[in-house]
Amino acid sequence: MNRPSLAWKLYIAAFYLFLFAPLLIVAIFAFNASPFPSPPWRGFTLEWFTGSGAVVGKPGVLVDPIWLESIGNSFKVAVPVALLAVLVGTVNAWVLERAEFRGKTVLAMMMLWPLVIPGVVLGISILAFFSRMANGLEDWLQTDLDALRPGLPLVVLGQLSFILTIATLIIAARLRKFDRALEEAAFDLGASRIRVLRTVTLPFLSPALIGAGLVALLMSFENFNTTLMLVGSEAPLPIAMYGQMREGASPAINAVSLLLMLGVGAIASVFALTSKAER
Amino acid sequence: MSAKPAQRLTLFLLLAPAILWLGLLIVLPHVEILVLSFSERVAPRVYAFGFGNYLEFFTEPLYWRTFARTAAMSILVTAITLVLAFPIALYIARVAQGRLKAMLLLLCLLPFWVSELVRTLGWMILLRESGVIPYLLQAAGLAGRPVELLYNDGAVILGLVYGGLLFMIVPLANALESLEPAVVEAGFDLGGSRWTVLRRIVIPHAMPGIVAGCIIVFMLTVGNFATPVLLGGKNGLWFTEQIYAQFITRFNWPQGAAFGMLLLLLSSAIVWLGLRLTGQSLGTTLKQA
């Protein structure tokens, strides 16, 4: 391509401004000493993070139990999702890359399905199915099965339904690059199956395992559509933010958003570093 | 061949998680909402098979209009996203070099790792009557009083296009990456204008990326919930909102299940059509992205 014209360069600059404007605005107004996140600028404050509520009327997000609880709920969902995604994703990747059986192409195809189902539909279908199971099992066993009702365990299952696809794809891509001669050499040297897995195969896979775990963590933290349908009384962070945003504007939401951006930025940079190490 | 039963057992154990996942979280739940969508309430707590929920969709104008509006606006959003993203992807793939290239792509990715709600919050603060843009317009003397820029179709489209950009840029840039510079030069040498080269060489080469990007953006847009609800307010009227209302607010699950099936049908139909028109498979398309 020949040299870019000035108009093109200006367009690129305008585009990146457009891309970052909403995020910068959110961050800036987390520090505005005003009860509303809107201009004019009333001075710099940290009240929205650590304040006791004496100055701005509401406690800062780092001391407000509502926000702390929702951050905790997000972790209660994201950590099991990430661990299960890596575990099951590894087994799935093995099935896709190593095992031979009839119907493998169908299975590989089905594993992609969750990505083309709208998140809301995934949410309602899992909600409806697990409610039916709960009704049936409760009648049969004569006991309450709260884990199958809307709540954090169901959110974990709902998020896993599509995050597993991503984790499987990431780990399978790495497994495909593996030189099987390395494993055979280890076998020839007398190592057992378990030992080969532990000392040769898994260390090779580890960047992909960490990468898949981090991606699962991020996707779980930011998921909204599926979570909204399955959530019970304990709201993870995006659901709590949505509720607050509908009630009205407050810089407290900006403060939480900024914390979220910092957290996500940290995880994303770890991910960038590990994927660089992979190459 | 004494190892055979053991091998079969191993295979079965390895397959078990995938079968549990796809069976319990994907296939059976979808069978459940399919069955649910064909059940009608004939008396309190008594349900029977029937097409009532689908008939209700076609006879109640609010429902099918919202559906048609969601589909039409999603197509519009996809088209706008493609036009806006193309020059960026072309720049990243063909012009930018080395560190600049990596940085431009990374800068594109960053905003999208942040929750959709944070991005939407940013647009709300920018657009609302007491927000930043009306404030600046007034300060610049362009408006007598603050104007409300939120809660209209423009704001919804803006938010959705913003949310879709990354998913368009990445597949486009990947597809344009493999374009041979010599082919482009040959086009110019043969007397083609910039426009001709773009239309006859660059765009056909980028087609797999264009299809992949359009399909992903359309799917994400049609299935979006927070952006139209928060940026459109009462005027948002998105179909996912109807599903949510039936399931969570009105507790009319069969009706909500029928709506869910219709949304799934719309989304799958567009994906299938896109793949069909360009003769590509789902696997390769998802790999582009």
Automatic annotation (TrEMBL), chain A:
Residues 71-271 form the ABC transmembrane type-1 domain. Pfam families: BPD_transp_1 (PF00528). It is a multi-pass membrane protein. The chain crosses the membrane at residues 12-31, 77-95, 107-131, 151-175, 196-221, 252-273. InterPro entries: Bact_Polyamine_Transport (IPR051789), MetI-like (IPR000515), MetI-like_sf (IPR035906). It is found in: Cell membrane. CDD domains: TM_PBP2. Gene3D superfamilies: MetI-like. Keywords: Cell membrane, Membrane, Transmembrane, Transmembrane helix, Transport. Belongs to the binding-protein-dependent transport system permease family. CysTW subfamily. PANTHER family: PUTRESCINE TRANSPORT SYSTEM PERMEASE PROTEIN POTI. This is ABC transporter permease subunit. It comes from Microvirga arsenatis.
TrEMBL record, chain B:
The chain crosses the membrane at residues 12-31, 71-92, 104-126, 155-176, 209-233, 253-275. It is a multi-pass membrane protein. PROSITE patterns: ABC_TM1. It is found in: Cell membrane. Its main location: membrane. PANTHER family: INNER MEMBRANE ABC TRANSPORTER PERMEASE PROTEIN YDCU-RELATED (PTHR42929:SF1), INNER MEMBRANE ABC TRANSPORTER PERMEASE PROTEIN YDCU-RELATED-RELATED (PTHR42929). Belongs to the binding-protein-dependent transport system permease family. CysTW subfamily. This is ABC transporter permease subunit.
